[in-house]
């Protein structure tokens, strides 16, 4: 008989979420946003992870005719796709390229047909693959990753020391993993990359990890070896002279214990199978246009066909974390995040984790039921039911933007009612607030969802994905924090903005 994992018999391709995941994800989101606010109090806000970009390049992703068992999703038919690749450093601080670091290789393939995983955006035409320059991840679980985020982003000092010793063993593992993962690099076009986390490959019992490795007939010279931006400069010099190629590979999970889904620190030992060739042709990518595109684009493993669904705790966490951080960053930067040069940003979302337990006398199932009832009452026009769920002293916070009249902090039930009334007066609801998943931890309920509406004054339509964090006390909602991008709805309200059939990345609120 095979051994058990937390009382479960492990199966190929299966996930095993823990009850603590939701709280760990919430802690990660709150800390990362606070860290971004400290790092970028004014002006443009970079990514929390992989903020330093070496370059955004255009590429071809060529899928040949494959054996029958490999014809899945993106790889079903022979085809050459257009793609963009963002090369980066992972450290949360912008550092000299001479220092050891983990390098990122994020692929965005465009014009990919088929329904996608993203709730409210099934017609999206992108497929993302996210890889890094080390074979395994630095943290085993979402909890360990959450703790490590705090440790790794704190400045040197007493607080960092306290954080380290508070969770000594898990932090020690993460630090050791980070030291193994970081390495020096002078040429990002000539090193291998791995996904570290697993993904479904068609059938539910099929799971793979991704791998990209250089496949150049002529070796790439190392180039310069000193300078703050030596990796970018070496990429510029190479791509002005020649094209470079990478092979795109998968390795299949063959044993659910030796190749676990829920522990990304374990190296899988199955063989790699080639599925595609990536070609980066000669080009001049170090331009203002391409640099802006690379900063504005969002990459997520959940920009995906269902056949390539992300698996494991770290990928489940990415769904919420990436949505909240990307929306915060877009709101601060006042730019619509574009998926490709031709398309408006196609939204992130979707997950299916549920947890329930009792803690400190608070019934989490009851909290979730209260929030679900609020959404039900809203969808069915029961305003009395919506406001009955709220405390008289509720605080409702939404990010604002120029021209959007209902952003900001709304304190007290009367102010929240005014906000709702204003939204109802200014908008025609096309698709009501539609929650796609609920998570609860202690006295908090996290909700993901989507909606769309028309701005009556301009007749422009927007669609949006959002994350809302509800805090409850004594079976009443006392605080709501909304995470979303407000740029596109500002464009929808702006009378001189071009009219579009759909404006992506709009604002979301409980009355939109």
From TrEMBL:
Query: Example GO molecular function term?
Result: heme binding
Gene3D superfamilies xref list: 3.10.450.50, Catalase core domain
Alphabetized CDD domains for the sequence: y4iL_like
Superkingdom per UniProt: Bacteria
PANTHER family, per the entry:
DOMAIN PROTEIN, PUTATIVE (AFU_ORTHOLOGUE AFUA_5G01990)-RELATED, DOMAIN PROTEIN, PUTATIVE (AFU_ORTHOLOGUE AFUA_5G01990)-RELATED-RELATED
Q: Write down what this protein is called.
A: Catalase
């Amino acid at each position: 008989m095979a051994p058990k994992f937390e009382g479960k018999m492990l199966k190929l391709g299966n996930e095993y979420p823990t009850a603590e995941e939701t709280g760990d994800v919430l802690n990660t989101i709150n800390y990362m946003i606070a860290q971004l606010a400290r790092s970028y109090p004014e002006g443009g806000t970079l990514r929390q992870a992989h903020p330093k970009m070496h370059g955004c390049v255009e590429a071809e992703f060529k899928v040949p005719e494959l054996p029958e068992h490999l014809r899945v999703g993106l790889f079903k038919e022979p085809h050459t796709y257009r793609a963009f690749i963002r090369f980066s450093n992972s450290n949360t601080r912008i550092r000299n390229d001479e220092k050891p670091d983990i390098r990122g290789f994020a692929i965005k393939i465009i014009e990919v047909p088929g329904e996608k995983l993203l709730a409210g955006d099934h017609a999206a035409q992108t497929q993302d693959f996210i890889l890094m320059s080390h074979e395994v991840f630095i943290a085993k679980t979402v909890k360990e990753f959450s703790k490590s985020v705090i440790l790794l982003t704190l400045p040197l000092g007493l607080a960092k020391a306290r954080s380290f010793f508070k969770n000594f063993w898990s932090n020690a593992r993460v630090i050791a993993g980070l030291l193994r993962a970081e390495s020096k690099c002078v040429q990002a076009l000539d090193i291998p990359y791995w996904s570290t986390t697993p993904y479904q490959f068609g059938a539910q019992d099929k799971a793979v990890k991704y791998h990209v490795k250089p496949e150049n007939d002529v070796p790439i010279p190392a180039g310069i070896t000193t300078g703050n931006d030596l990796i970018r400069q070496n990429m510029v010099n190479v791509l002005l002279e020649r094209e470079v190629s990478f092979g795109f590979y998968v390795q299949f999970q063959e044993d659910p214990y030796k190749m676990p889904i829920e522990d990304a620190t374990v190296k899988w030992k199955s063989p790699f199978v080639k599925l595609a060739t990536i070609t980066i042709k000669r080009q001049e990518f170090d331009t203002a246009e391409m640099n802006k595109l690379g900063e504005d684009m969002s990459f997520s493993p959940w920009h995906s066909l269902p056949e390539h669904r992300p698996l494991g705790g770290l990928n489940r966490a990415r769904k919420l974390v990436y949505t909240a951080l990307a929306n915060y960053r877009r709101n601060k930067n006042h730019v619509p995040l574009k998926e490709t040069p031709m398309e408006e940003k196609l939204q992130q979302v979707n997950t299916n984790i549920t947890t329930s337990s009792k803690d400190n006398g608070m019934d989490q199932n009851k909290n979730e039921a209260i929030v679900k009832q609020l959404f039900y009452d809203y969808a069915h026009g029961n305003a009395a039911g919506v406001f009955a769920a709220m405390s008289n002293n509720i605080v409702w916070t939404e990010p604002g933007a120029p021209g959007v009249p209902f952003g900001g902090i709304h304190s007290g039930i009367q102010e929240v009612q005014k906000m709702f009334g204003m939204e109802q007066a200014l908008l025609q609801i096309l698709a009501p607030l539609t929650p796609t998943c609920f998570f609860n931890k202690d006295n908090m309920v996290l909700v993901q969802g989507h909606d769309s509406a028309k701005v009556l004054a301009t007749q422009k339509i927007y669609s949006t994905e959002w994350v809302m964090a509800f805090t409850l006390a004594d079976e009443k909602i006392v605080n709501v924090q909304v995470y979303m991008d407000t740029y596109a709805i500002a464009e929808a309200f702006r009378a001189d903005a071009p009219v579009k059939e759909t404006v992506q990345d709009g604002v979301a609120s409980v009355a939109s």
